[in-house]
């Protein structure tokens, strides 16, 4: 057994198990999970569209269109996994969901600057991202995920 494995085993043995939150899931956490899932599904639909158009359509660069579609499909996995984790009240899921929302804000700004129908899409994306960010930082949501202040060893 390597020294790194021994250290990991020591930490695991000395660390108490994190208790799973009990009680009903707060509506704020359910709403954050649902909105995150909608964003993931929208990304998956966009990726599938790009992939199909890259294969069946006549893009300037089929290889680039297919690569873009596969990339967007892969990126759709992050918010979908985060949404499932939020729904199941897993504390790790808050980070990926927050990252997804923070990344969505510049994308929304770019869509808004695009004009036309993209303004509505950008405004919707920005509104959804801001709502999820607010929902995930509320004390209700953090408590439901079992996230609390860190204990310090200061005497």
Helix content: over 70%
H and E string: HHHHHH
What structural category do the secondary elements indicate? mainly alpha
By DSSP, the count of extended strands is 0
User: Could you name the ranges where pLDDT drops below 50 across 5 or more consecutive residues?
Assistant: none
Radius of gyration: 20 Å
Outline, from the CA principal axes? elongated
Main beta-sheet annotation: none
SS strand fraction: under 5%
Q: Tell me the span between the first and last alpha carbons.
A: 36 Å
| Total helical segments | 6
Mean pLDDT: 87
Q: Short description, anyone?
A:
This protein is mostly helical and 155 residues long. It is built from six helices and no strands.
Structural summary, described in words:
The structure is a single chain. 75% of the residues lie in helices and 0% in strands. The chain is an all-alpha fold. The mean pLDDT is 87.
List strands and helices in order, with pairings.
Elements: H1 3-14, H2 27-56, H3 62-87, H4 94-114, H5 117-137, H6 139-144
Helix pairs in contact: 2-3, 2-5, 3-4, 4-5
